[in-house]
Amino acid sequence: MKQVIRFFIAALLLISATLSQAATITNIRAFANQDKTRVVLDLDFNPRYSTALSADGHSFVLRVNDVTNYRQAPVRITLQPGSAVSALQKALDGNDVRYLFTLQGSGTPNVFVLKPQGGHNYRLVVDFPHTGTRLVSTGTLQVLDQDTAEARLGTGRGAGIPPTHVITVHDADSAENALLNSLSQVGADGIRTMTPQQAQAYSQKLQQLRDAQAKRQTAAVPTQQTSQPQVEEEVLDTQAPPVPQLIQALPDPFIIAVDAGHGGKDPGAIGKRGVREKNVTLAIARALGQYINSNQQFRAVLIRSSDVFVDLNRRSEIARQKKADILISIHADSVASGSSARGASVWVLSNNRAVRENKKLLQGSKKSQLLGGAGDVISQSEQNPYLAATILDMSSDNSRSEGYTLGQEILAKLGGFTRLHNKKPIHASLAVLKSPDIPSLLIETGFLSNRYEEIQLNQPNYQKQIAYAIYQGIVSYYEKYPKQRFKSRQESAQRVLNHERVHTVKAGEYLAKIARQYQTSVAALKERNQLKSDHLRIGQEIIIP
Question: Hey, which of 238, 329, 351, 542 would disulfide with 259, CB 3.0 to 4.6 Å?
Answer without folding.
Answer: 329
